[in-house]
Write a structure and sequence with these properties.
Elements (H helix, E strand, L loop, with lengths): L11 H7 L9 E7 L2 H10 L7 E7 L17 E7 L9 H19 L4 E3 L3 E4 L2 E13 L2 E11 L19 H5 L5 H20 L3 H10 L7 E6 L2 E10 L5 E4 L5 E4 L3 E4 L5
Parallel strand pairs: 1-2
Antiparallel strand pairs: 2-3, 3-7, 4-5, 5-6, 6-7, 8-9, 8-12, 9-10, 10-11
Helix pairs in contact: 1-5, 3-5, 3-6, 5-6
Length: 271
C-alpha cells in the first residue's frame, strides 16, 4: 500500500530538465516509500545497474546512520543514495564520505549563502545544528573497492516538530534556516553536480584537492573536543585528519591520538 504524502512530491521531470551532470543522477530509481535507500541501492547493484544511478525516496521506514543508529526520514526531506564504482583501494573508502560532505556543504553555501560546516566524520551542520548525515557502505574485492553506496539524508522541508523533543535542539532544516520552502529538485541537481565534480577529482587521484576543501569547510581544527567511541573518551585539541581519515587529537601530555571513529563534540576551552 502506498503512503499518503501531504507535501508536494519531488518532480523527476524537473530534475531531468535541470541536471547538468555527465552520469550521476542520469538514472533515477524513485520510491514514495522505501525501507532504506542504501538497501535498495545495494539490491540494484546486484542487478547490474549503471554507475551513477541514484535511489530517491520521499520517506524511509528503516533509515539508518552510522553504527546502525536510526535515521528519521519524514516527508519533505531528501533521502538519497548514489551508486558508484570508484577505482580506489579499500583503505581509502573514507574518501567517499569526505567528498559527499564537501558536496553537501558547498551546495548549501552556493544556493542559500548559509554557513554550512562539516563535522567529522560524516555530518553537515548549519548554525551548529545537524542538517545532513552521510552513510557510505562499500563492498570490497581483494584490496580494492568493488562498489560503494553513498547515502545522503538532508533535512530540507522537514517539519522540526516531527523530530523527538530530545533532538530538536541539535538538528535543523533548510526550510527553517532560510525561512521558506526549498525547491528540492534544484537542490538535488546542484548537489549531484558538486558530487560529480568531487568524484572526478577522486578518480583522477587528486583527492588532496577534495581534502583541502573539506578542511576549509570544517571548524573543528583548533577546537577543544571530546571524542566518544567504543574504546572510551578522548579529550584534547583537534589538529587534523590522517591518511586514513582519522581525527588527530593533541592530548595534554603533548602526544597525538588518532581516532578512526566516534562522536565528536566541541568543548569550551578549559583554563
Amino acid at each position: 500500500m502506498g503512503i499518503v504524502c501531504k507535501m508536494k512530491l519531488i518532480e523527476l521531470e524537473k530534475i531531468r530538465e535541470q541536471l547538468k551532470t555527465d552520469f550521476i543522477g542520469r538514472e533515477i530509481k524513485y520510491f514514495a516509500e522505501a525501507t532504506s535507500t542504501n538497501d535498495v541501492a545495494k539490491e540494484l547493484v546486484a542487478k547490474g545497474v549503471k554507475e551513477g544511478t541514484i535511489v530517491l525516496a520521499e520517506t524511509q521506514t528503516q533509515g539508518r546512520g552510522r553504527l546502525g543508529r536510526r535515521w528519521l526520514s519524514p516527508e519533505g526531506g531528501i533521502w538519497l543514495s548514489v551508486i558508484l564504482r570508484p577505482k580506489i583501494p579499500a583503505k581509502d573508502s573514507y574518501q567517499l564520505t569526505f567528498m559527499a560532505a564537501v558536496a553537501v556543504a558547498k551546495t548549501i553555501r552556493r544556493m542559500f549563502k548559509l554557513n554550512a560546516e562539516i563535522k567529522w566524520p560524516n555530518d553537515v551542520l548549519v548554525n551548529d545544528r545537524k542538517v545532513c548525515g552521510i552513510l557510505t557502505e562499500s563492498s570490497v574485492r581483494g584490496d580494492a573497492v568493488d562498489f560503494a553506496v553513498i547515502g545522503i539524508g538532508v533535512n530540507a522541508n522537514v517539519d522540526l516538530a516531527s523530530f523527538p523533543k530530545d533532538l530538536r535542539s541539535s538538528v535543523t532544516t533548510l526550510e527553517a534556516e532560510v525561512k521558506g520552502e526549498v525547491e528540492r529538485e534544484r537542490f538535488l541537481c546542484t548537489l549531484l553536480e558538486e558530487l560529480e565534480n568531487c568524484y572526478k577529482m577522486l578518480q583522477e587521484k587528486k583527492f588532496e584537492l577534495v581534502l583541502e576543501e573539506w578542511k576549509s569547510l570544517t571548524t573543528l581544527f583548533g577546537a577543544h573536543v571530546e571524542v566518544t567511541s567504543l574504546k572510551g573518551k578522548v579529550r584534547g585539541l583537534a589538529v587534523g585528519v590522517n591518511r586514513n581519515g582519522g581525527l588527530e587529537v593533541l592530548l595534554k601530555n603533548g602526544t597525538i591520538r588518532k581516532v578512526l571513529s566516534g562522536d565528536v563534540v566541541k568543548q569550551k576551552r578549559q583554563r
